[in-house]
């Protein structure tokens, strides 16, 4: 995936397939720490501790049709090549939080990409999905809520 917006779209699609009715999406800079954190949290069916531990391994998937399970492993690769890490918090019935923490100015951190188009694609394809979005970058802090 060439842009962080691509990762956001992939993570949102995973959440929706897991039965999420609400998403929280964040892309937040921490100037003091020099980091950029991408986070997607959902209220979907969640994963067991074992599933969450293995979720970012290549070709691991809980889907039964049409996918090879590379999205989270690519997100982990992006985070790590950008000097950071991937965190996954999940519990059965309790939803999932995927957080990629990257060095903001790392030479290998991909560009953000077209967030507007990505968010419009998610909303357009899922009009009943509730979404809270926070983009805090470049000295600005923007929030957007799409209520169901």
What is the fold's blueprint, element by element?
Layout: H1 4-17, E1 22-30, E2 35-42, H2 49-54, H3 71-81, E3 85-90, E4 96-103, H4 115-125, E5 130-137, E6 140-146
Parallel strand pairs: 1-5
Antiparallel strand pairs: 1-2, 2-4, 3-4, 5-6
Helix pairs in contact: 1-4
Mean pLDDT: 91
Report the structural category: alpha+beta
Q: Describe the strand arrangement of the main beta sheet, using strand numbers.
A: 3-4-2-1-5-6
The name of the CATH superfamily reads Histidine kinase-like ATPase, C-terminal domain
Number-wise, the strands total 6
Number of helices: 4
The CATH topology annotation reads as Heat Shock Protein 90
Rounded Rg = 15 Å
Number of domains: 1
Distance between the termini: 29 Å
Instruction: Pick out the low-confidence regions.
Output: none
CATH class: Alpha Beta
Share of β-strand residues: 25-35%
Instruction: Tell me, briefly, the overall form.
Output: globular
Q: What is the CATH architecture term?
A: 2-Layer Sandwich
Element-by-element helix/strand order: HEEHHEEHEE
Structure description:
By secondary structure, the protein is α+β, with helices and mostly antiparallel strands. The chain has a single domain (4-136), classed as Histidine kinase-like ATPase, C-terminal domain (Heat Shock Protein 90, 2-Layer Sandwich). Helix content is 28%, strand content 31%. The protein has helices spanning 4-17, 49-54, 71-81, 115-125; strands at residues 22-30, 35-42, 85-90, 96-103, 130-137, 140-146. A six-stranded mixed beta sheet has the order 3-4-2-1-5-6. A hairpin with a 5-residue loop joins strand 3 (85-90) and strand 4 (96-103). Helix 1 packs parallel to helix 4. The longest helix has 14 residues, at 4-17. The chain is globular. The termini are far apart.
């Amino acid at each position: 995936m060439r842009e962080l917006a691509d990762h956001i779209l992939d993570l949102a699609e995973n959440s929706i397939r897991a039965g999420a009715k609400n998403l929280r999406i964040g892309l937040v800079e921490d100037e003091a720490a020099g980091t950029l954190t991408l986070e997607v949290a959902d209220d979907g069916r969640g994963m067991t501790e074992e599933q969450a531990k293995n979720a970012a391994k290549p070709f691991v998937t809980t889907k039964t049709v049409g996918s090879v399970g590379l999205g989270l492993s690519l997100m982990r690769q992006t985070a790590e090549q950008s000097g950071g890490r991937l965190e996954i918090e999940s519990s059965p019935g309790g939803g999932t939080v995927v957080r990629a923490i990257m060095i903001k100015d790392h030479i290998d951190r991909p560009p953000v990409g077209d967030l507007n188009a990505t968010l419009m694609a998610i909303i357009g394809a899922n009009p009943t999905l509730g979404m809270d979005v926070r983009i805090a970058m470049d000295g600005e802090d923007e929030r957007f809520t799409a209520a169901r």
